[in-house]
Amino acid sequence: MRVLLALALASLAAADEITVRDAAELQAALRDLKPGTTLKLAPGEYPGGQQVTGIAQLTIEALDAKNPPVFKGGKTGWQFSRCTDLTLRHLKITGQSLNGLNLDDGGQLDPPVTGITLDHIEVSDVGPSGNHDGIKCSGLDKLTIRDCTVTGWGGQGIDCVGCHDSLITGCKLIGKPGFTASAGIQLKGGTAGVTVEKCHFTNAGERPLNVGGSTVLPYFRPLGAKYEATRITVRDNVIEGSPCATAFTGVDGAEFSGNTILFPQKWIFRILQETKEPGFAPCRNVRIQDNRIVFRRAQVQIDLNIGSGAAPETFRFANNCWFAEDQPAASKPKLPTAETSGVYGTDPR
Q1: What are phi and psi of 206, to 5 degrees?
Q2: Across residues 103-125, what is the average pLDDT?
Q3: Is 115:84 a contact under the CB 8 Å cutoff?
Q4: What is the pLDDT of residue 2?
């Protein structure tokens, strides 16, 4: 009896794993998708414009992780709506005009979509101009984006709108000439409890990290949230180039620690308030500590760009090392509050 049961379970597992070798086989597999299916995609080029709705526990991955399939062209490479416990691994997406990868809740806010994992996804050449994202995430909880690379985009490399209790780790965001990137990673629209760690940003837009943002009220998740973002942790990243290293924009509570900032081109940080609806929290309660900041006074005359409506007096600075490479004696920044145990004029490298 046990042997028969084992054989039946093995047969069921095999039936739920489908190997796809070309575009026609992919379309056939997508037509008959069932929850729990694993699609293994052979190397080669596949068309963009793929869409899946409402399939849980779906895995789509490369048959050969060293030679991943490439999804080329279309408005959006892949769109997944309300696909709980989705896993995508070792895929390449390139040349889309709208978004490379779109993950969303289908506009249905309750219950949220949970448990999506992106692992070794490469997205490139999206846009190139306008609000067009490499990876767009809307209304997702317990999202993990791990070891992904986004190169060349028009809007945000990774855009999180109303995402919660999530992790972005080990990713690379690389700007590209001719692409009008506004941000590398953006966390807005009621986003909460998100950690960005161990990522590398290279000329990743006007704001490599936009902790907060500007969101039209009906798109907030949850509806009625009075902050763009809260409980955000940004740690152990490297941020190179761009007009600033990070913008804090309507965030109510964040920690920025252990990061390395190299040569911002205009400001080091921005403290902004772009959503000014009644009752909305000002940008506040951010702790910036234990960072290594290397810049040039020839580029950075104003250390922090502070906009109207923010609460810079609630920012706290501690144990940061600031080094103006071309004028070490002018390394000490002008901050809105006094720093605790800062180091100035010593090269942290």
Answers
A1: -60, -35
A2: 95
A3: yes
A4: 52
What percent of the chain shows pLDDT beyond 70?
Answer: 96
Q: In angstroms, what CA-CA distances link 276 with 38, 162, 207, 225, 314?
A: 45, 18, 20, 13, 18
Q: Residue 105 — φ and ψ, nearest 5°?
A: -95, 10
CA atoms lying within 13 Å on the CB side of residue 173:
40
CATH number corresponding to 2-344? 2.160.20.10
For residue 54, the 8-state DSSP code is S
Task: Name the residue among 262, 161, 140 with its Cα closest to residue 210.
Answer: 161
Distance between CA atoms of 157 and 256, rounded to whole angstroms? 20
Please compute the mean of the pLDDT values over residues 236-257 and round it to a whole number: 98
Answer yes or no: pTM beyond 0.70.
yes
Q: Which of 306, 325, 323, 324 is nearest to 315 (CA)?
A: 306
Q: Phi, psi at residue 4, to the nearest 5°?
A: -65, -40
Q: Which amino acid is at 1?
A: M
pLDDT at 76 over 90: yes
Q: How far apart are CA 255 and CA 235, in angstroms?
A: 8
Going by C-alpha positions, the residue among 282, 286, 281, 252 that lies closest to residue 269 is: 286
Mean pLDDT over the full length of the chain: 95
Whether residue 14 is predicted with pLDDT greater than 90 in this model: the reply is no
Q: Report residue 7 as tokens.
A: 């054989």
Which runs of E-coded beta strand occur in 42-111?
45-47, 50-53, 59-62, 70-72, 76-81, 87-94, 99-104
The amino acid present at 2, given as its one-letter code, is: R
**Mean pLDDT in residue range 118-126:** 98
